[in-house]
Design goal:
This protein has 296 residues and is mainly α. It has one domain. It is built from 12 helices and no strands. Helix 4 packs across helix 6 and helix 10 packs antiparallel against helix 11.
Length: 296
């Protein structure tokens, strides 16, 4: 266990070396997160009953006959929009990471321009992944209703399997500029030919990020406990400060984890398709990113 954590930390440090050299790469996940917050804020503002007027969604959903249909259409549109934003900035980040691995200085403007040039592929992939995500969620709910915990577990396996086979879709979109269906096939082929089933390297970055998220949550809820304790004003002020630290720490962790994940993803894609490990990453760390299939 400790050896795996050590390798995971080493792998994260290898990707962090690229991020340390080009810290501006973190701008792209930060921009994506900021747009997410704007979209969520706009949705919450729209749903506030006190807004009233013709712009209130509650007035349009008041009719029981149309409520379900409009709700699902609106929900799909929101999920699609947020997914497209996430993929757009992820494409830009992968483009920048590939330049960094090639020994070139990445450009945020060039990354965004590349993403704009791939808008048809991005929108197509967003439609596919949003649709599949909703279908998988419906299947998980149905399995959970019939099988309880086992159904939830099986649904989770389906979601993980989808995440695995689509792991290289974004790099494929960036480099090969193909459609979403072909990108999924290429991603699956790369996994079958080079790696295996277990995304151990990605899991290690996620584990490290998860630990920092837990610390952020502890700080946040510790501050909330102080605020709710109805103590002195200084105690309440400290609680508010801790809550703010927890929130910003969680946001910072999300940005860094997303950046590190994309940097490493771009590196293992290059290794998987060319057989050569980028000089920016340790070959032993890249080669251990996935557990190889055992020979039959």
């Amino acid at each position: 266990m400790f050896a795996r954590l050590s390798r995971g930390w080493s792998m994260a440090k290898a990707s962090f070396a690229v991020l340390k050299q080009y810290p501006k790469l973190a701008i792209l996940p930060a921009m994506s997160g900021a747009i997410f917050l704007v979209i969520i804020g706009a949705i919450l503002a729209t749903l506030m009953p006190q807004l009233g007027g013709t712009g209130s969604i509650w007035r349009h959903l008041g009719n029981a006959k149309s409520q379900s249909f409009l709700f699902y259409v609106a929900a799909f549109g929101i999920f699609y929009m947020m997914t497209a934003v996430m993929i757009f900035f992820n494409v830009a980040l992968i483009q920048c990471a590939l330049r960094a691995h090639a020994g070139e200085r990445p450009s945020i403007r060039a990354g965004l321009a590349s993403a704009v040039g791939l808008l048809p592929q991005i929108l197509g992939w967003a439609l596919v992944t949003t649709t599949v995500g909703i279908i998988l969620n419906m299947i998980t709910d149905a399995l959970q209703n019939y099988l309880g915990f086992l159904g939830n577990f099986l649904g989770g396996l389906l979601e993980v399997s989808w995440a695995v086979v689509t792991y290289f879709v974004v790099p494929v979109l960036v480099i090969e500029k193909v459609g979403p269906v072909t990108a999924v096939k290429r991603s699956t082929a790369i996994l079958r030919a080079k790696w295996g089933e277990s995304l151990a390297g990605e899991a290690r970055i996620g584990l490290i990020g998860g630990l920092f998220f837990i610390l952020s949550a502890l700080v946040f809820f510790g501050g909330m406990a102080l605020v709710l304790s109805k103590g002195a004003a200084a105690v309440a002020g400290l609680g508010v400060l801790l809550m703010a630290i927890g929130v910003f720490s969680a946001i910072g962790t999300f940005v860094i984890v997303q950046t590190l994940s994309s940097i490493f993803q771009a590196g293992v894609y290059l290794y998987a398709t060319t057989g050569q490990v980028p000089a920016s990453l340790d070959p032993t760390l890249v080669e251990s990113a996935f557990k190889p299939k055992s020979a039959k």
